[in-house]
Design a protein that fits this description.
2-enoyl-CoA Hydratase, Chain A, domain 1, 4 domains, eight-stranded mixed beta sheet, six-stranded mixed beta sheet, binds (S)-3-Hydroxyhexanoyl-CoA
Length: about 700
C-alpha cells in the first residue's frame, strides 16, 4: 500500500506494520536537500501513524546511498541539515533498520549508523571517505562510529577512507547482520519483522559501549596522530578527524557532536576541500570527451605491444593485470628475451615482497606471448607502439602494423613528443591511428594521455577511453603538439626552475620548497629519477633550432658531461652513495652551479621559498593557459587532472588551474608581468589569462562552457 503523497526523492510504502522508506535520487541517492526534506517528513508521519511499528530505510537502484550531495558544498546551506536529520532517525521511538546494498558511504553510512539496526547484503561496501574530499564525517560519524567499533578501527576507516566489504563490516560490529540474498528489501523486512516479533525496541548507537575501556582508545588516538604527522603533511582533515574522535573520550555525546560540527565547518571552508572536490568531479568529467559521447568502443581483448623496453614492458604488465591477452613484438631474439625479462621482473618483484604467488605469476603470463614476427599481431584489437622516440623508427613500425593488422584494429603510438598526425598520414588507415601516452612506470602511473590526431575515428578515441577504464588509468584527452599537455607544461616550468637555479637558488632549496607545497618530489629529484641522459640528447638534437634570444641554462649539460645522469649513475643533482634512498646534497654540484653563474655573469641573489613557488606556479599556470587556449586540453579541468595524475601536483590543491583560481588570476598576471621585467622573452602572458582577467572571469568558468 502506497502512502498518500509520495515525495519525489523518498518513496514511502507500508508493508503490513513496517514503513519502508526508499531513497530514490539517481544515480547514487545522494542526500540532497529534497531527500533530506522527504526523509524528515516521512519520519514525522511515521511517528504519528499508529499503523507503523517499525521503519526500514533502503536505497533504490544500485546503491543504498553515496553520502551527502557533494555539489551542495560551498553553496548556502538549506535545512534540514544532515546532522539534524540523522539525530531524528536515532531519536525515533520505533525501531529503525537500515538495509544496505551497493554502497553506504559518508553521510549514507551516517544515516545507517543512526538507524537502530543495520543489515548489509553481500557485495555491499561501507565507508567514510570524507577525508578524500578534505572533510570529516559531519553527520555524527566521528562520534557514533568509535562508540560502535572502538577508536582504533573507526580512525583507520575514517583516515584511509577505504571501503569495507559487508563481511568485514559484520566482523567489526558495524553491521548486525549479513543478508543471505542480494535483495535488501526482502532481507530488511525479514530482519525487522523478527526484531518486532521479539519486541526488540529502538537501540541507539550513541549508547554503544566500545569506548568503555579508555586506555586502548587513547593509545589508538596517539598512534593515529603520530602517523598523520608523518603521512598527511599539509592536510587539514586527517588532523581534524583525530581531534573529533578524541572528543568521544572526554566529552558527552552532544558536546562531541558540537565539536564535530565546528571541525567539519572548518574543513568545509578550506581551500583543500574545494581542491579535492574539484578533483573528484574533474576525474569524472574527463571521461566525457566528445568522442565517447558520439561513438561506442570497438572490441578490446587482445593487445599488441611493439617494443619490450621499460615503457613497452610496463604497458604489457598493465594490460596483463587487466586480464587482457598481450603479444609483445621485438626486433630480434635477444631484444625479445630482454623484453620478456622486463615483464617477468615486475612479477618477480611482487613475489619477493610476498604480494604474489608463483602460481599467480604463471597464470598471468599464460596470457602473454612474444614474437619477432609482426604477423603475431594479426588478431590484435589494439596495438601500442613503444619503440624509441624517433620518427623514422616509429613510421617503420606503423608500416608493418598497416601490413599485418586486421581491419578495424586500433594502432596506437606511445610517443611523448612526436607529431602523431605525421605517423597517421604515413599509413593507409589514418582513421585508426591514435596516441596513447603512458607514464613511467606504466603499470603504476595513473595518467594516460589520449592524443587525438586530425583524422582519427571517434570509435577509435572511444576505444582508447575504454582501454583506460580496463587498465584502471585516468584518461585525459589531448590534442597534438610538442609534448601534448603534460610534457609541454613541464618543459616550461623546468625552464623557470633552471633560471632560479642560475640566479641564486640551490637545487636543494627549490626541491624542499616544492615538497612543502605538496609535491612528493622536487624537480631536481625528479630529474635524477628520470635520468639526465634523455633530456640531454633532446637538448642536443634541438640545439640548432633553439631561439638564440632565449635564455639557456647549462647546469644540466655540465652534469651530463661528467656522466652524472642521476640515480642510475649514483649521482646527479644529488649523491646516491647507497642507492636511491641515500640521496645527499653534493657540494661539487653547488660548485658547478657557481661556476656557471660566473660564466654567465650572474651575481647570485637569494630567493625565499614563497618566491620560488610564485615563479614556479606562474610559469606552470601561464603555459597551462596556453594549452587550454589552443584547445590542446579540452577544458582547464582536463589539464588539472593530467598534472595531478602524471606530475605529482598535490591533489588537495585541485590542479594548477584550480590553484590559479584560488590564488587569483589578476595576481598571477601581475606576477608574470613583474618577472617579465627581467626576462620578457620567457615571461609572455598567455592571451587566455589576459582575457580572463579582463572579463573578471576564472578558469572554472571554462569548465562549464561545454
Ligand atoms: C559526506 O557525506 C559528508 C557528510 O559526512 C557530512 C555532511 C554534513 N554527491 O563515481 P560514479 C555523482 S561527503 C553528488 O561515476 P560509480 C558523480 O559525480 C560525501 N554526486 O559512479 C557522477 O556524476 P556524473 C561522501 C555524486 O558507480 C555520478 O554520481 N561520499 C556523489 O563508479 C556517478 O558516480 C563520497 O565521497 C555525491 N555524494 O561510483 C562518495 N557521488 O554522472 C563519493 C557520486 O554526472 N562517490 N556522485 O558524472 C563515490 O565514491 C562513487 O561515486 C560511488 C559510485 C562509489 C558512490
Amino acid at each position: 500500500m502506497s502512502c498518500d503523497t509520495p515525495l519525489p526523492t523518498v518513496e514511502s510504502t507500508l508493508h503490513e506494520s513496517i514503513l519502508v522508506l526508499t531513497l530514490d535520487n539517481p544515480p547514487v541517492n545522494a542526500l540532497g536537500v529534497e531527500v533530506r526534506r522527504g526523509l524528515l517528513a516521512a519520519l514525522d508521519s511515521a511517528a504519528d501513524n499508529p499503523a507503523v511499528e517499525g521503519i526500514l530505510i533502503l536505497g533504490a537502484g544500485r546503491h543504498f546511498c553515496g553520502g551527502a550531495d557533494i555539489r551542495e558544498f560551498g553553496k548556502p546551506p538549506q535545512p534540514p541539515a544532515l546532522p539534524e536529520l540523522v539525530k531524528r532517525i536515532e531519536a525515533c521511538a520505533k525501531p529503525v533498520v537500515a538495509a544496505i546494498h551497493g554502497v553506504a558511504l559518508g553521510g549514507g553510512l551516517e544515516v545507517a549508523l543512526a538507524a537502530h539496526y543495520r543489515l548489509a547484503v553481500r557485495g555491499a561496501r561501507l565507508g567514510l571517505p570524507e577525508v578524500q574530499l578534505g572533510l570529516l564525517p559531519g553527520a555524527g560519524g566521528t562520534q557514533r562510529l568509535p562508540r560502535l567499533i572502538g577508536a582504533k578501527a573507526a580512525l583507520e576507516l575514517m583516515l584511509s577512507g577505504r571501503h569495507l566489504s559487508a563481511e568485514q563490516a559484520l566482523e567489526l560490529g558495524l553491521v548486525d547482520r549479513l543478508g543471505d540474498s542480494d535483495d535488501a528489501q526482502a532481507e530488511g523486512l525479514a530482519y525487522l519483522g523478527q526484531l518486532l516479533a521479539s519486541q526488540a525496541g529502538a537501540r541507539r548507537t550513541r549508547d554503544a559501549l566500545a569506548l568503555s575501556d579508555l586506555a586502548p582508545q587513547r593509545a589508538a588516538i596517539a598512534a593515529a596522530r603520530e602517523q598523520a604527522g608523518k603521512k598527511s603533511r599539509g592536510l587539514l582533515s586527517p588532523h581534524h578527524i583525530i581531534q573529533a574522535v578524541e572528543a568521544t573520550l572526554d566529552r558527552p555525546f552532544e558536546d562531541g557532536l558540537k565539536e564535530e560540527r565546528r571541525l567539519f565547518l572548518e574543513c568545509l571552508d578550506s581551500p583543500q576541500r574545494a581542491g579535492l572536490v574539484h578533483a573528484f568531479f574533474a576525474e569524472r568529467e574527463v571521461l566525457k570527451a566528445p568522442e565517447t559521447r558520439a561513438a561506442a568502443p570497438r572490441a578490446l581483448e587482445q593487445i599488441g605491444v611493439v617494443g619490450g623496453g621499460t615503457m613497452g614492458a610496463g604497458i604489457a604488465v598493465a594490460a596483463l593485470d587487466a586480464g587482457l591477452q598481450v603479444t609483445m613484438i621485438e626486433r630480434d631474439q635477444a631484444a625479445l628475451a630482454r623484453g620478456r625479462g622486463n615483464v617477468e621482473k615486475v612479477y618477480d618483484g611482487l613475489i619477493d615482497k610476498g604480494r604474489l604467488s608463483a602460481a599467480d605469476k604463471a597464470a598471468t603470463l599464460a596470457r602473454f606471448s612474444a614474437s619477432i614476427d609482426y604477423r603475431a599481431l594479426a588478431q590484435a584489437d589494439l596495438v601500442i607502439e613503444a619503440v624509441f622516440e624517433d620518427m623514422a623508427a616509429k613510421q617503420a613500425v606503423f608500416k608493418e602494423l598497416d601490413r599485418v593488422c586486421k581491419a578495424g584494429a586500433v594502432l596506437a603510438s606511445n610517443t611523448s613528443y612526436l607529431d602523431i598526425n605525421v605517423i597517421a598520414q604515413s599509413i593507409s588507415r589514418p582513421a585508426d591511428v591514435i596516441g596513447l601516452h603512458f607514464f613511467s612506470p606504466a603499470n603504476i602511473m595513473k595518467l594516460l594521455e589520449i592524443v587525438v590526431p586530425a583524422k582519427v575515428a571517434a570509435q577509435v578515441v572511444a576505444t582508447a577511453f575504454e582501454l583506460a577504464k580496463k587498465l584502471h588509468k585516468v584518461p585525459v584527452r589531448a590534442g597534438v603538439c610538442d609534448g601534448f599537455i603534460g610534457n609541454r607544461i613541464l618543459a616550461v616550468y623546468r625552464q623557470a626552475v633552471d633560471a632560479m637555479l642560475e640566479d641564486g637558488a640551490s637545487p636543494y632549496q627549490i626541491d624542499q620548497a616544492l615538497r612543502d607545497f605538496g609535491f612528493p618530489m622536487g624537480p631536481f629529484q625528479v630529474a635524477d629519477l628520470a635520468g639526465g641522459d634523455i633530456g640531454w640528447a633532446t637538448r642536443k638534437r634541438k640545439a640548432a633550432t633553439r631561439d638564440p634570444k632565449a635564455r639557456y641554462v647549462q647546469v644540466a649539460d655540465r652534469l651530463c658531461e661528467r656522466g652524472w645522469f642521476g640515480q642510475k649513475t649514483g649521482r646527479g643533482y644529488y649523491l646516491y652513495p647507497q642507492g636511491p634512498r641515500s640521496a645527499s646534497e653534493d657540494p661539487e654540484v653547488l660548485a658547478i652551479i657557481d661556476a656557471e653563474r660566473q660564466r654567465a655573469g650572474i651575481t647570485p641573489r637569494t630567493f625565499s621559498d614563497a618566491q620560488i613557488i610564485r615563479r614556479y606556479m606562474a610559469a606552470m599556470i601561464n603555459e597551462a593557459a596556453n594549452v587550454v587556449h589552443e584547445g590542446i586540453a579540452l577544458r582547464p579541468l582536463d589539464l588539472d587532472i593530467a598534472l595531478i595524475h602524471g606530475y605529482g601536483f598535490p591533489r588537495y590543491r585541485g590542479g594548477p588551474l584550480k590553484y590559479a583560481d584560488q590564488y587569483g588570476l589578476p595576481q598571477v598576471l601581475a606576477d608574470i608581468r613583474e618577472f617579465a621585467e627581467d626576462d620578457p622573452q620567457f615571461w609572455k602572458p598567455s592571451p587566455l589569462l589576459v582575457a580572463l582577467v579582463e572579463r573578471e572571469a576564472n578558469f572554472d568558468s571554462l569548465n562549464h562552457a561545454h
